[in-house]
Amino acid sequence: MNPAGSIGKLGFRRWYERQLYASHAWLVACLVSGFGMFALLEDLAGRAFGAQAAIVLMVAFAAGAIAWYALARYLRMLLRAQHLAERSTCEACGTYGLYRLVGATPRFMIVSCRKCAHEWRID
Ligand SMILES: [Zn+2]
70-73 — which CB contacts under 8 Å span 24+ positions? Predict the structure, then answer.
């Protein structure tokens, strides 16, 4: 879950771009699963209760659980990427997202601007 390794390997801008693509793929998964769940529930409304209706209900529940998980992943990835993006502007020269990783712990990273070598800490 710590993004420092990926940022150190890819650079912030490419990491951020990939986070946006991946998080929006989770959003698409959420929407598809959510629509699937509602379609199954609508189908269930016209059925008499029985074994087939119970199976449809279980599949609808699974689709809802997948939609909920995908929404949580989407929000978590997007908020983390946004949090780091807001702290990725060099305070000395104003360059955005061009830094190299100097050091990292699970709680923060020390980065250095590629343009002016100014170092700062990103929590
Ligand atoms: Zn700088």
Answer: 70/26, 70/27, 70/29, 70/30, 70/33, 71/26, 71/27, 71/30, 73/23, 73/26
